[in-house]
């Protein structure tokens, strides 16, 4: 009955005032007028997210002496590296690759972020570095496994602790020549399981021409060996993302300098490194690309790094595990096995 009367109702609704508040006329059809409030969902999401806080886990890899800890401290303007946090006592090179993680809560503008820095002392420092990436790959996969086991628990937590590695900063020595075989092998193996961002450390040891030539050579070598680094081309959602990410990919690997020391330059206090020729200003784009790396890593792509980790790398691991095992059986909270890291 209602369906048969629908054309009549539509016809006569044009010739009389609507009995419903907010129903008005616009052009040839009627539209609802007045404020609904669906735009407040953004504010609702913001408040909810700010209450919960954020997790961000960054791994730093490279042989000793490349300024890894200093650069991370500079990025987050805090003493967040393991050396700054009292790790390790004497700075001896381990006999094998170790995994050291330290967490801090950083707050800015009312936003809290639990930052975990995962260091890999011993990487690339041995006489024989064969398969030295295995402990790192094992650690990354163990974090996926912990997350997966929490997901399949019958009484799982409302908010699963996220220890998955969202980003791996890989430090390349500023040789000016080419990548080492170790660099190639590491990135070839690990790019399949984690977001790798290659950076050229201590770039102030090269002239501008040497730096640009080295960057170009590194990009060509990565392309030749089929090594994909973040942001990967296939993960661009639309043309806007592609255009933005293409500019980033053209600038990579970022040639950076890190420093937690301040100097007076032209009446301003700046972070930098003092040399015989003057002060290399860390945040000066004419001196190095630290500001580009910081803006990319923290201000524009931090959330995307987390999403690619969850939607691509973790889902790939999850699908493989469930396929290999014929599905994981639900685990009770008491029987959850966690890796002893």
TrEMBL record:
<dbReference type="InterPro" id="IPR016491">
    <property type="entry name" value="Septin"/>
</dbReference>
<dbReference type="InterPro" id="IPR030379">
    <property type="entry name" value="G_SEPTIN_dom"/>
</dbReference>
<dbReference type="GO" id="GO:0005525">
    <property type="term" value="F:GTP binding"/>
</dbReference>
<dbReference type="InterPro" id="IPR008114">
    <property type="entry name" value="Septin3"/>
</dbReference>
<dbReference type="GO" id="GO:0005737">
    <property type="term" value="C:cytoplasm"/>
</dbReference>
<keyword id="KW-0963">Cytoplasm</keyword>
<dbReference type="InterPro" id="IPR027417">
    <property type="entry name" value="P-loop_NTPase"/>
</dbReference>
<protein>
    <recommendedName>
        <fullName>Neuronal-specific septin-3</fullName>
    </recommendedName>
</protein>
<keyword id="KW-0547">Nucleotide-binding</keyword>
<comment type="similarity">
    <text>Belongs to the TRAFAC class TrmE-Era-EngA-EngB-Septin-like GTPase superfamily. Septin GTPase family.</text>
</comment>
<keyword id="KW-0342">GTP-binding</keyword>
<feature type="domain" description="Septin-type G">
    <location>
        <begin position="52"/>
        <end position="324"/>
    </location>
</feature>
<dbReference type="Pfam" id="PF00735">
    <property type="entry name" value="Septin"/>
</dbReference>
């Amino acid at each position: 009955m209602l369906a048969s009367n629908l054309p009549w109702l539509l016809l006569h609704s044009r010739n009389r005032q609507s009995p419903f508040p907010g129903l008005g006329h616009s052009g040839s059809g009627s539209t609802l007028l007045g404020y609904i409030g669906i735009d407040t969902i953004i504010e609702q999401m913001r408040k909810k997210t700010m209450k919960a806080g954020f997790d961000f886990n960054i791994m730093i890899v490279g042989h000793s002496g490349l300024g890894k800890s200093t650069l991370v401290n500079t990025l987050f303007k805090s003493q967040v590296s393991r050396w700054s946090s009292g790790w390790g006592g004497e700075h001896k090179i381990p006999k094998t690759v170790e995994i050291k993680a330290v967490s801090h809560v950083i707050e800015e503008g009312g936003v809290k972020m639990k930052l975990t820095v995962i260091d890999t002392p011993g990487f690339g420092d041995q006489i024989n570095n064969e398969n030295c990436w295995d402990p790192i790959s094992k650690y990354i996969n163990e974090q996926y496994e912990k997350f997966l086991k929490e997901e399949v628990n019958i009484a799982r937590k409302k908010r699963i602790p996220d220890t998955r590695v969202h980003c791996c900063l890989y430090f390349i020595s500023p040789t000016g020549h080419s990548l080492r075989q170790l660099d190639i092998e590491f990135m070839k193996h690990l790019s399949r399981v984690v977001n790798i961002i290659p950076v050229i450390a201590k770039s102030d040891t090269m002239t501008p021409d040497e730096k640009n030539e080295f960057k170009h050579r590194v990009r060509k070598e990565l392309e030749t060996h089929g090594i994909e680094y973040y942001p990967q081309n296939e993960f661009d959602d639309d043309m806007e993302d592609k255009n933005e990410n293409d500019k980033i990919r053209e600038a990579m690997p970022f040639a950076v300098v890190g420093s937690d020391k301040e100097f007076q330059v032209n009446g301003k206090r700046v972070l930098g490194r003092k040399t015989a020729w003057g002060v290399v200003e860390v945040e000066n784009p004419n001196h190095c690309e630290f500001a580009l790396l910081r803006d990319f890593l923290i201000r524009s792509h931090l959330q995307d790094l987390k999403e690619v980790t969850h939607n691509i790398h973790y889902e790939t691991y999850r699908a493989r595990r469930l396929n290999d095992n014929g599905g994981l059986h639900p685990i009770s909270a008491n029987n959850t096995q966690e890796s002893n890291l």
